[in-house]
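Please check what follows.
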Amino acid sequence: MIPLIDGHRRPRGPYTVAAALLRHLVPRALERDGELVAAHDIEIRAAAPELAGLVPARRVTIDAGLPDDERILVPAPRRTLRLANGLAEFFRDAVRPGETIAVCNTAEADPTDTELLDVMTRRIPPETLTILSCSGGPEPPPDTRDTGELWELVDRCTRDGFLHAAAELGERGMARTEPGGRRWWRFAQRTATALGGLGRTAEARAVWDQVRASSQDPAMHAAAAYGTAMLDARHPDPERRDLGRARRWINEAIAISGLLPDPAERAFKLGFDRNGLALIELRHGRLGAALSLVESAIELAGQLGERHPLHRMVLLANRAQLLAALGHVKEALEDYTAAIALDPAFPDHYLERGNLLFKLGRHDEALGDFERAMRAGPPLPEAHYNRAELRTVRGEIDDALADLGRVIELDPSYLDAYINRAGLLAAAGRDEEARRDVTAGLALAPGNPHLLTVLGQLETAAGRLEEARAALDLAVESAPGLATAWGNRGVLRYAAGDLEGAVADLTRAIELQPEPDLHANRAVALRALGREAEAEADDRLA
């Protein structure tokens, strides 16, 4: 029997529900299947660090052994979805079929637990585990943690990517410490970073303004200038990026960092800031300028000896990205390999190197990298998506469909997975399944031209030509560079008896992206118009 779990976040913060369930299930699972526990070491240790003595770390990234000032990476908000999927899979396999859990105070749960409960409800059949929850419950006692304890929790939340909690608890820590002091600064830096990662840019900017108002420390001002610049440079909506303002702030950061008295601190901070300016140059499309800045940062990192390996890893990966974009493929692969060597347990660079290998046609090597990324940590939808694309190119359609199904299982909001799976299903004649994916995808992104293209194809096959024309007209109008939309509308116009229109649309599709099927289809339309010589030419091209 699993006892009632109080999900209120106040007593312990993130993964209150997860930790309570893990404390109950992990010892039991160890008696039955130690490998099941070992396979989920990252998720278990992240959600319930008190179980570290029972669950040895099998997959460890380099930052675990670094001092505070060298841990520069903050996980993206999506990391908690990966953890939630891994935990759900552990719970699914660890519970006894038919068990029930009951959780109260879910209205006051941390977002990590809210997300976890959603994933568990979606992915664990009720006959395996019944989940009962209620929003209310007893009020826990006030938070009496002192600032030493609060700092440890904020630091852990930032390190593990529990950004909502890092922001909430960090603000609490700022309120309990003297503005401008070293301890206050540590809370402020973590709080602003978390808020920025969550897209709460106005709140993050306000914290950086507080830093500037409260301190005359040059290192704090340099960090605040860098952080403020990145709020604009990294904004997920390109329309809301103010690159001019970002450049003004990053130049201030560089100016201050260049004056820091300690040579090692100066080299690190200056390289860090130049890397930030490189991102701004990249956003402007100035790849050469971005590359020069990253290379200067790598030179500065050479002055740091063995310190700051994460900083060097990030710089190498950034240079690899720029080199690849500039066509220097061999050098890009070398940099990705060097970045991976610095931290073989970090999955992102396997994905990036695998994507580059895939573009080069080195499919077996790309496949190896995608699968290494899968093994490096909790479930990673992007790795399955990339492997699905590779398998599609190799004609392994059933395997590609399985990977896309896995992506959607892990992340039902992954739009591109619906697009690709709908296209594969339609091509295989599995029209009803394809239509379900089109419907699900359009619910996420109404008017998406790729989904409208597949919808037009499905409606054409069903003989609903007016509906097909409406969908394909919208697709062509919203994405005039989408070859498949023109090609499918050409097929539709041929079916509707508009031969000249069919030839025109298929010709435009061929201009955008020549494909054998497009030439073959145009040959049919040309032959129907009596233009035999042109039809034969298309047949040869096909």
